[in-house]
Structure of 6-carboxy-5,6,7,8-tetrahydropterin synthase:
Amino acid sequence: MFLIREFKFDAAHNLESYKGKCEKLHGHTYRLVIVVEGVPDSEGMIIDFVELKDIVKEEVINVLDHSYINEIMNQPTAENIAIWVWKRLEKKLQRDNCHLYEVQVWETEDSGVIYRGEKIEGCSK
């Protein structure tokens, strides 16, 4: 079973290792989707939505919202942001009955990435 929670945050970035308009400073209203895979516990929940919200806010939203993401990671593409989010949440969401399954980072309404913890070398600091 998959539990899903969606978040939004506003942030600015520029892609220094990119040739095109995105190398200039600009911003997005990002959509972040966190997917947890698991089985319901004795309370009938994979993880409490409120608890998931609190963890994601503390570990991710409070850091990225209204930030200049280049000060947090190198080359802050949607791909690198997804890896960074995964690293911040993976251990916090590891339980006997569930684990982090997927991170989605959407830069625009129709452009985003999905990351499921695959090992990718050299993607973020």
User: Anything to note?
Assistant: The mean pLDDT is 94. The first helix runs from residue 49 to 64. Helices lie at 49-64, 78-89.
